[in-house]
Amino acid sequence: MARVFIDDRWLKTAEDGTPPSASATKALANAKDPMRAKVPKKWRTSLYGTGKRWRCRWYVLDDDGTKQQKSRAFDMLGDAEEFAAALEDDVRRGRYIDPDGGDKMFSKVADLWIDTKIDVKESTLLRYKRELRVYIKPKWGDKMLREITRGDLQRWVNSLTVGNYPAELPNERSPRPLAARSIRNIVKVVMAGILDYAVENKWILDNPARSVKLPKAVVKDDDMVFLTIGEVEAIAKAATSIGRDMDGLLVRFQAAVGTRINEALALQVQDLNLKKGTARIRRTWTRNLDNKRELGTPKNGEARTVAIPDFLIEPLQKQVAGCKKDDFVFRAPRGGAIDDGNWRTRIWSKVMDNLGMKDEGVTIHSLRHTYASIAIANGADVKTLQKQLGHATATMTLDIYAALWPDKLDSVAHAVSQAWQEHNAKPKNEQGTEDEIDQPKKAEAETKKAEAKKTGKGKTDKPPVELEQAA
């Protein structure tokens, strides 16, 4: 869109090609009632005297790429000209907003946004669709964009935290309070993503979801359980007893390497380099749009190499002995892949029951958190931990595990104090301070002494030291 046209809805050019005369135009402008103005019928349109006289008209591209006409009517020509000038200026400056864009239904815009998500993993797209279907559309689906305000969004966020919200839950399940991270994904990722899309298409001016306040995510919430090595060993032994040696090895691998469960279950023999003590994490089990399991890239889309501790090398060698390179390291009794959901039911849940840990919030993911806590306690820095865990950034690692790093303020203060003491304990000539300060004075004295010797000035009647002593 580059131009706004202004139309006179009441007057037209006559069939013989003559435009409205100046007298007719002036008569219409001065008349309180247009029907009584002295305007010949040949210049009157079919809409003469009805509605607003002046119309601004322009064209925009619709959702499907077709050109669509937009318009707005005004009583006064000056108002129409002012609107046209402002609109054309907004277009030139990239500030144009479709006056009718706010009337678009949110559900339609959400579907258009989903169609643009061709650059995300299928499992991520599946999660977007689920959150849209379960939590967002029941609340906002039948609203127009202009009806969605920051205040209403904030009240919705508050209802998500207490469990009082409309939802399309399976098996007629009642809504319950959502965790802070779940609310963030629903509001700041999906809902805000849809409204960002509306802003990009000039349907609304700004995104009210971006300024909504969310509940603060607690660093150590329900799924942030850290186990001791003794507790990990107890779980591993119970898993071996209920299942096989491999089940206990999988528990130890999770807690000592820190992979996600579906990354470990996707490991193949060819991914291990037991001589170097490393494993290449290049795939993970994920869900496609049909909610079926398939192999895909790791969570952040990048493969990584992780370190395997020495005590796991021998058990892993036994586990893969005689296997083909494309066999899974952790595999079902018949050699196929293990379904993590099935393993939870068949092994993990029974282990938790047997050890009395069912109600302590211990999940399979707790093994990954446990690895992080052990690594940090033994000196791991944030960048190394990020690479091992496969986080997208070191900031993400810090956000999750910042509280686990020990407070080193006292040790830093001690180190600075020690450096100061060592400096002050040095001999003055090593420090160079006094020598450097006295050098100019010594040089000046030597110069004066030499000059006095040449001129004979500065002599005294006092005998030399040797003669004085001899006397």
Description:
It holds the Pfam family Phage_integrase. The protein is mostly helical and 471 residues long. It folds into four domains: 5-96, no CATH class; 106-211, Tyrosine recombinase, N-terminal domain (DNA polymerase, domain 1, Orthogonal Bundle); 229-404, Intergrase catalytic core (hpI Integrase, Chain A, Orthogonal Bundle), CATH 1.10.443; 410-454, no CATH class. Helices cover 47% and strands 8% of the residues. The chain has helices at 22-30, 77-93, 106-115, 122-140, 150-162, 180-200, 229-242, 245-257, 261-265, 313-320, 340-355, 365-377, 382-389, 394-401, 409-424, 428-431, 433-455, 465-470; strands at 5-8, 54-61, 67-74, 272-273, 278-281, 284-287, 293-296, 304-307. A three-stranded antiparallel beta sheet has the order 1-2-3, with helices on one face. Strands 4-5-8 form a three-stranded antiparallel beta sheet. Helix 3 (106-115) packs antiparallel against helix 4, helix 3 (106-115) packs across helix 6 and helix 7 (229-242) runs antiparallel to helix 8. The model is unreliable at 458-471 (pLDDT under 50).
What tags apply to this protein structure?
4 domains, DNA polymerase, domain 1, 471 residues, 3-stranded antiparallel sheet, mainly alpha, 18 helices
Name of the CATH class of the largest domain: Mainly Alpha
Computed Rg = 40 Å
Low-confidence parts lasting 5 or more residues at pLDDT below 50? 458-471
Please tally the β strands and state the result.
8
Strand order of the largest sheet: 1-2-3
Strand content range: 5-15%
Q: SSE order, as H and E?
A: EHEEHHHHHHHHEEEEEHHHHHHHHH
Treating each run of at least 4 consecutive H or I residues as one helix, how many helices? Answer: 18
How many domains? The number is 4
Mean pLDDT: 85
Which descriptor suits the 3D outline?
Answer: elongated
Helical content stands at 40-55%
| Largest β-sheet summary | 3 strands, antiparallel
SS class: mainly alpha
